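ok so for the tutorial part 2 we go from a plain amino acid sequence to predicted structure tokens. step 1 is just haveing the sequence, like this:
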Amino acid sequence: MWWRRLGRLVRRALLTVLGLQLGTMIVLLLIDNRRKKNRAPVVFPKAPAVPVQAGDSEITVYTYGQDLYRDMLSAIDAATGRIYLETFIWKNDPIGRAFKRALVRAANRGVAVYVVFDEFANLVVPRRFFRFPRTIHVKHHPLFVGGWGFWLPRNTGRNHRKLMVVDGQVAFVGGYNIGALYATDWRDTHVRVTGDGVAELENAFVDYWNLWPRRRHPELADPRHRSWHSAIRVHRNVPRQLVYPIRNMYLDAIDRADQRVWLTHAYLIPDGDLVDTLVDAVERGVDVRIIVPERSNHIVADWVARGCYRTLLAGGVRLFLYQGAMVHAKTALIDRTWATVGTANLDRLSLTGNYEINIEVIDKNLNAKMAEVFELDLSNCRELTLDEWVRRPLMVKFSEALLRPFSPFL
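step 2 — the prediction. this is what the tokens look like for a chain of 410 residues:
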């Protein structure tokens, strides 16, 4: 019958497209593997880690991993009461082992140490690395949650957060995972917070820890004396509660802009609403600039991201490609007042999928500091123009079109 023949044709067409998509991914991965083997030494401009005052808090912006890890390890060594550490990737290398030794030393001198890491992100790390003394409380975000209901939205999402709070006095949050690669070869952004903003970040750790009760782990007490008037607000995506405020934070802040919107992101795969909001900002005279890596550590994500470039460029958004290093930052500054630093990328996985955490800071001092960092990064970028984009080879355009349907999954 004709409908059976039609069904066979449709199935063959779908299988052909799927085969082309998989073939394209394999070719891209092979190319990327060769590039990584022949990679030149990493060199990029660095900004000094200088603190600025933001309301009743002090914020230090880090753009170089060695500086950040030095101060994080110093904070661990100075701890007297409690340490809360949460990370996505934790490498078994000199940097990763330095953090592990510092936490063990802290526990040995009586500090209460609580550690969280994501199991999926660390599948390649030997299991023995995550064996800690019984004096350290360790939770791993499991591969699957919810039994047979693992596919439900509230049971999905990786723990993509990177957060450390020490003694309720100092906190670190941002894009840096823990590992030697990130210490010198990646351009990322993290912040150190002291003052009234720390309680909000500590509360974020406590809420996550208590969300997954286990008999052998104690429940943590909520921090006291949280301010209603802090310059810092903490936004957390919590799939378990079907709460995703970071996307709304971006949409609202960009919609308010009347001067500039400057974004730096490792993976730029925005949904239609975000694209429209950025283009609308340009139409009302806002200077919209976005820094992304020319080549990230995920080549398939790069090619999927290109699906939105023409719309952004045609709408007047300026795209800048970071050179010679992986830029992994997740930051934004808007006008002369607003800024955010955190763990959420502008893609579906971060904005409506994973556990994420961003701080939103309404303060001119931090905005100015973030603008300094952005302008320094611009000195290591080349601008991508609409004319260049339109003139790229037909085969490249075809490959990008093949991969574009994967954008809702990345």
